[in-house]
Amino acid sequence: MKTRVREYRKAAGMTQQQLADAVFVSSRTIISIEKGQYNPSLMLAYRMARVFGVSVEELCLLEENRRIEDGEPPAEPPVETGEPTAAVIEDEGKEARS
């Protein structure tokens, strides 16, 4: 399973041992999660997410992992065209009428 544990841990300035201590596991568990060799339990994922102030879905890339598991192609990021969205055009129209 892909996760963002390493990314969030480094952004928080934490060592693997510090994160392990904060969520009551060994540093070896954190290392294995970061390498994608171990899937954290729901409770461990929840504890890590709370440490980083994010959701379990965000930390564990649940949608991306579901797509992989289901054999679906990865979601494509939205393409920026430089054109305003419908919402922007609508808001500009309201301002012009005011």
From TrEMBL:
<dbReference type="InterPro" id="IPR010982">
    <property type="entry name" value="Lambda_DNA-bd_dom_sf"/>
</dbReference>
<feature type="region of interest" description="Disordered">
    <location>
        <begin position="67"/>
        <end position="98"/>
    </location>
</feature>
<dbReference type="GO" id="GO:0003677">
    <property type="term" value="F:DNA binding"/>
</dbReference>
<feature type="compositionally biased region" description="Acidic residues">
    <location>
        <begin position="89"/>
        <end position="98"/>
    </location>
</feature>
<keyword id="KW-0238">DNA-binding</keyword>
<protein>
    <submittedName>
        <fullName>Transcriptional regulator</fullName>
    </submittedName>
</protein>
<dbReference type="InterPro" id="IPR001387">
    <property type="entry name" value="Cro/C1-type_HTH"/>
</dbReference>
<dbReference type="Pfam" id="PF01381">
    <property type="entry name" value="HTH_3"/>
</dbReference>
<feature type="domain" description="HTH cro/C1-type">
    <location>
        <begin position="5"/>
        <end position="59"/>
    </location>
</feature>
